[in-house]
């Protein structure tokens, strides 16, 4: 039996736009994902977050579900436009009251709340002013964060500023496949800088707030990048991919500088980054959240964009997202972060897999693929802790099936099945298994 440290926080993670529904209820303003999903052609099957898992109304039952699973912690995000419909200015007290009730219910259930301040649903009104490409967003975000610290900081001790800033900028402003659907490298690289600046400003606001014994961090999607061959060209390509996917956010946050390799490569597209900005971005944090799903395997691809890399498909197995299942990558990533970035306190704030689940006539969901995926990744996390990594918790993505962005509801990540016709929740085999892992704080090796 492999035991995890005493007090290890086993949990699940979700995000507002993916589960809540009711995006415009009770005075909430439209987010960029409300607009993006309502724009034909952007989301599979024309799916939107209008209903999702109806969590805005079913939150009591969902907290009861978390209690049934025995979760120690629950990571969720606050919808910025529910609290500040215009992104700044007037507070929507009804919207804020939803999160007060949710936090109180979690605490009553003995579940530690982790709040993500931003999980992609920027108020549309701020996008109208340029969104993350407008440097002023750092101040707007810091003010929003300060409001939540003031209103919820007496009961919420764990705060995450941003979820996956790399995805926000790359997918939303460069690749154009996520909201706001822009394809503009200059805007995208500025968005990266402004996201990180906003993070730093929010950490400073947290330090100035009256949140007692609170801890604040950021969640980054990180994927170790491996060369497709041992050739010099492919080794260099893997370095470039690692710089763009990982060090682009890790280095400024922990070392106050951007990777020189990228500044050179992107040349005049690279945004101005005054020293004062970099010092703000590097404001010390209490923990790093890591979202791990898979690795990258890359080869040199002359002339292929700024990075001149191409992804090389691996034999698999793969999840329903087409992501290679590579649990060893989690161990290698954790040990690397520990060694290269000063041994920070870490949480795995997301890890999980989409598979094509079926609700059996018997009423069960035998998602053995997901159970095996999680078991193999838990083993790698335990291996990392044994190697000295300060890993203090693990949040499975996700508590329940939900709106998977441009894939809509076609991809199921939950350990709880959602029948979207009836909104019935059914704990999957992986959910029943996870409850035992949590109860024993460990697993068989
Ligand atoms: O793709 C699965 C998850 N990845 N990280 C961010 C979440 O919002 C996604 O659903």
Core attributes:
eight-stranded parallel barrel, globular, binds azafagomine, 445 residues, alpha/beta, 15 strands
Which whole number gives the mean pLDDT? 98
Bound molecules: azafagomine
Beta percentage is 15-25%
Structural class: alpha/beta
- Low-pLDDT runs of 5+ residues are none
How would you describe what is shown here?
The protein has 445 residues and is an alpha/beta fold. 41% of the residues lie in helices and 16% in strands. It contains 15 helices and 15 strands. The strands form four sheets. An eight-stranded parallel barrel has the order 2-3-4-5-6-8-11-12, surrounded by five helices. Helix 8 packs antiparallel against helix 9, helix 13 packs parallel to helix 14 and helix 14 packs parallel to helix 15. The radius of gyration is 21 Å and the shape is globular. The structure holds azafagomine (AZF). Azafagomine binds next to loops.
Summary of the model, kept short:
The protein is α/β, with parallel strands linked by helices and 445 residues long. It has helices spanning 16-19, 32-37, 55-69, 80-83, 93-108, 124-127, 137-152, 165-174, 185-208, 232-255, 260-266, 275-281, 328-340, 368-386, 429-440, and strands at residues 2-3, 9-13, 73-77, 112-118, 158-163, 215-221, 225-227, 287-291, 296-300, 309-311, 346-351, 391-397, 416-419, 424-427, 442-443.
Q: What is the topology?
A:
Layout: E1 2-3, E2 9-13, H1 16-19, H2 32-37, H3 55-69, E3 73-77, H4 80-83, H5 93-108, E4 112-118, H6 124-127, H7 137-152, E5 158-163, H8 165-174, H9 185-208, E6 215-221, E7 225-227, H10 232-255, H11 260-266, H12 275-281, E8 287-291, E9 296-300, E10 309-311, H13 328-340, E11 346-351, H14 368-386, E12 391-397, E13 416-419, E14 424-427, H15 429-440, E15 442-443
Parallel strand pairs: 2-3, 2-12, 3-4, 4-5, 5-6, 6-8, 7-9, 8-11, 11-12
Antiparallel strand pairs: 1-15, 9-10, 13-14
Helix pairs in contact: 3-5, 7-9, 8-9, 9-12, 13-14, 14-15
Bound molecules: azafagomine (AZF).
The site of azafagomine has 9 residues, from loops.
């Amino acid at each position: 039996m492999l035991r995890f440290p005493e007090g290890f926080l086993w949990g699940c993670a979700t995000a507002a736009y993916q589960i809540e529904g009711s995006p415009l209820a009770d005075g909430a303003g439209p987010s960029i994902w409300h607009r993006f999903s309502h724009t034909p052609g952007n989301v599979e099957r024309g799916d939107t977050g209008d209903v999702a898992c109806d969590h805005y109304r079913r939150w009591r039952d969902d907290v009861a579900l978390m209690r049934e699973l025995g979760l120690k912690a629950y990571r969720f995000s606050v919808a910025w436009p529910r609290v500040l419909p215009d992104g700044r200015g007037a507070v929507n007290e009804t919207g804020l009251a939803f999160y007060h009730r949710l936090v109180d219910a979690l605490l009553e259930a003995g579940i530690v709340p982790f709040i993500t301040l931003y999980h992609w649903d920027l108020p549309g009104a701020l996008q109208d002013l340029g969104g993350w490409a407008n440097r002023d967003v750092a101040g707007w975000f810091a003010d929003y964060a300060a409001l939540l610290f003031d209103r919820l900081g007496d009961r919420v001790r764990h705060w995450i500023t941003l979820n996956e800033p790399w995805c926000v900028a790359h997918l939303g402003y460069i690749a154009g496949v996520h909201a706001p659907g822009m394809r503009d490298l200059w805007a995208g690289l500025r968005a990266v800088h402004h996201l990180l600046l906003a993070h730093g400003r929010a950490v400073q606001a947290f330090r100035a707030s009256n949140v007692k014994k609170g801890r604040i961090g950021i969640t980054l999607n990180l994927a170790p990048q491996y060369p497709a061959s041992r050739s010099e060209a492919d080794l260099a390509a893997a370095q470039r991919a690692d710089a763009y996917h990982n060090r682009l956010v890790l280095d400024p946050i922990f070392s106050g500088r951007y990777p020189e390799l990228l500044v050179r490569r992107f040349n005049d597209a690279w945004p101005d980054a005054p020293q004062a900005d970099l010092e703000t971005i590097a404001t010390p944090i209490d923990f790093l959240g890591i979202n791990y799903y898979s690795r990258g395997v890359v080869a040199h691809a002359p002339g292929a964009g700024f990075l001149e890399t191409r992804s090389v498909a691996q034999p698999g197995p793969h999840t329903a997202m087409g992501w290679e299942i590579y649990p060893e990558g989690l161990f290698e990533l954790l040990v690397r972060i520990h060694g290269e970035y000063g041994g920070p306190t870490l949480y795995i704030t997301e890890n999980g897999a989409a598979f094509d689940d079926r609700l059996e006539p018997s009423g069960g969901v035998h998602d053995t693929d997901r159970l095996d995926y999680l078991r193999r990744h838990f083993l790698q996390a335990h291996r990392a802790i044994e190697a000295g990594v300060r890993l203090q918790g693990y949040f499975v993505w996700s508590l329940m099936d939900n709106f998977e962005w441009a894939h809509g509801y076609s991809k199921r990540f939950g350990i709880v099945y959602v029948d979207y016709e009836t909104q019935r929740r059914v704990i999957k085999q992986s959910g029943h298994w996870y409850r035992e892992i949590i109860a024993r704080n460990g697993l068989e090796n």
